[in-house]
Specification:
single chain, two-stranded antiparallel ribbon, two-stranded antiparallel sheet, Gag-pol polyprotein
Amino acid sequence: MAHHNVSRILIDQGSSCDVMYQELFEKLGMKMEDLSSYEGTDLQGFNGSTIRPWGLINLPVTFESKES
């Protein structure tokens, strides 16, 4: 947005997704059996391309030695 005047910014606070690529999926030792089915729509990139996710996975996250 450099060199442009921005008169309006829209913020969506409810839709977020983190995309894990195949290389990381494999490095974490994940298997296809670890995925839950994905019932949503295809993801669309900024260049207009679309891709169908393999599925969903819940990953544990650790902050300051406490699991959440």
